[in-house]
Amino acid sequence: MTAVTAGTAETTGAPGVSDAAVAAEQAAYEAVFDAAVAADERIEPRDWMPEAYRASLVRQIAQHAHSEIIGMQPEANWITRAPSLRRKAILMAKVQDEAGHGLYLYSAAETLGTSRDELLDKLHSGRQKYSSIFNYPTLTWADVGAIGWLVDGAAITNQVPLCRCSYGPYARAMVRVCKEESFHQRQGYEALLALSRGTEAQHAMAQDAVDRWWWPSLMMFGPPDDESTHTAQAMAWKIKRHSNDELRQRFVDIAVPQAEALGLTLPDPDLRWNEERGHYDFGAIDWAEFWDVLKGNGPCNEERLSRRRQAHEDGAWVREAAAAHAEKHRVDKHHAEQHQHTGKHGEAQA
Amino acid sequence: MTSDSWPLWEVFVRSRRGLSHTHAGSLHAPDAEMALRNARDLYTRRSEGVSIWVVPSAEITASSPDEKDPFFEPAADKPYRHPTFYEIPEGVKHL
Amino acid sequence: MSTTPVTSGAAVITGAALALGDDALVLSHRLGEWAGSAPVLEEEVALANIALDLLGQARILLSLVGDEDELAYLREERSFRNAQLVEQPNGDFAHTIARQLYFSTYQRLLYGQLASGDGPFAGLAAKAVKEVAYHQDHAEHWALRLGDGTDESHRRMQRACDALWRYTGELFQPVEGVDVDHAAMESAWLASVTDVLGRATLTVPEGPRTGAWAAGAGRQGLHTEPFGRMIAEMQHLHRSHPGATW
């Protein structure tokens, strides 16, 4: 038995064993892993897993966690200007949840042997991505509603299948996240409905926001299946359960009637019901824009990342102080306990 | 002292009286007192709990998956530990 | 908007509810400004919890005497009754913690007294005193860690405690309709803050606890310059759409 140290990878194979023996052992482990995945069992942190599976999970969970914390910014942008106290409370609670979701996800990544510090470093240095959607600005209050309805709606469509992801800690984190996300989407929809049914100016504000957020929301599902580099392997490992295009279609089918109920239009002249397919057809997505934003040319890429770095740097002295305090008092406590121990000992002898 | 990284803690929450604490997740904190408070804020903000334990992740000793067989399989061939092992004539109650 | 009968008793209650409600509203707003910039993710969650508790208190208090949104969004700067302490800008994390320590210690004593009375705020206070006890605990734990952490954190925390000291006297100026023993509260506050600062290896500031003309000023609608900018930001959207519902 060994102590669990923050989900460190199990190392297998003892020194001095022949290559053939190592290979055989490796194959045996792999067979057990493949069988577990095939049987829809969950892989847990200390189970053997292929290095590529581990790396793929770390990449995906990290990107997801980064998206939650970068995603706080566009909405926090409106906390201080929320137009009613009720909306202000809702928005604060929502942005807080996003910090919470980031925490659940970083924890899931840590079970794979990657510390949060490492992941934050990679985010701050641009070596790991977050969802491109957060590189778009929130220009009006209605953007808060549009993010809740469309962006969170797209996220939920992506995330619900992840609750059955083959990696246990990720699946469990997603169960918690999805429970909380449904409040996010509903509050966004409700906020947009109030605007749509409000004054002419409010209605226009809502329509403008939906016009700006619709296409980027569709891009959130990632590139089309035939261009997606990670999809096939991720699906084989049951990290991912549905392809990008499948999920995108599911989202469109759900969103169209919701837009009608809102009394708002979606900015796509090609959007219409296809009886034969049993789905809505929709227009071509501007993938050039998608790749451009991904490469860093979005309206807010620079701003989001530098704000995040700034917060981290400004907080360094606080984190150091708490660590230093803990260190001092750990020593104090240790001394106190020793003292007490000796005291008791003395008593017993007396 | 320049380290600004905090250790990892595992959080266990008792969701209501009468139930045992179950693992809720983990978080970072500089010390136990702050870990408890962070856990309260993070894992019980929707009234999910009435009691919390926090344990430094590094202090947990776990069985290894490699020991799965010797650890857990011997228990599988002792069906006489389970009440369903025993046949009781039909109609006998409260057993 | 609910209309309250205009009697002097009602006016007294209105003044008192505004004083307590504006304190909570304004401090909640300031804490909300931290969203996305806290020193560590766990602290994002903690600060937001405190801000949400305060906003909840503000909404109950303002609703006792009018429409919460009209009161929050349509009053001019000079009509706000909050103490100047809570409107002070966040500064660094040490300033925010010093402000929290001073204010939550006061608010805990205040609500403790109100909860044991039978006045119009007893019900609210009984619920809020539990929230505020947690806020004080949070502030105290951070004060200890910043005061007795590194040289830098000690210096920052001492500077913050010193800078905000002169806004603490106002908290104990009697407010009509807030039926508590302000003098007793003040000595209990001093004892509590002195104890925490001592354990945090910090020095109790020596300066006056009120500015030259600051005593009771916030309660009378005299605020500091940053407050005007704060409510301009807070109110602008609501005021841009007169009569709209959100």
From TrEMBL, chain A:
Which Pfam family, giving just one, matches this sequence? PaaA_PaaC
Positions with biased composition (Basic and acidic residues): 325-350
User: Which Gene3D superfamilies does the record cross-reference, listed alphabetically?
Assistant: 1.20.1260.10
Q: Where is this region: Disordered?
A: 322-350
InterPro entries per the UniProt record, alphabetical: Aromatic_CoA_ox/epox, Ferritin-like, Ferritin-like_SF, PaaA, PaaA_PaaC
Q: Which domain of life is it from?
A: Bacteria
Name of protein: 1,2-phenylacetyl-CoA epoxidase subunit PaaA
Q: Which organism is it from?
A: Streptomyces flavochromogenes
From TrEMBL, chain B:
Which InterPro entries does the record match to this protein?
A: PaaB, PaaB_sf
Superkingdom of the organism of origin: Bacteria
Q: What is this protein called?
A: 1,2-phenylacetyl-CoA epoxidase subunit PaaB
Q: Which organism is it from?
A: Streptomyces flavochromogenes
Question: Which gene is annotated as encoding this protein in its UniProt record?
Answer: paaB
TrEMBL record, chain C:
| Gene3D superfamilies, alphabetized | 1.20.1260.10
Q: What is its EC number?
A: 1.14.13.149
Q: Which UniProt keywords apply?
A: Oxidoreductase
Record bears the keyword Oxidoreductase: yes
The terms under GO molecular function for this entry are: phenylacetyl-CoA 1,2-epoxidase activity
Any one Pfam family here would be PaaA_PaaC
Cited NCBIfam families? PA_CoA_Oxy3 (TIGR02158)
Q: What protein name is recorded for this chain? A: 1,2-phenylacetyl-CoA epoxidase subunit PaaC
The species this protein was found in: Streptomyces flavochromogenes
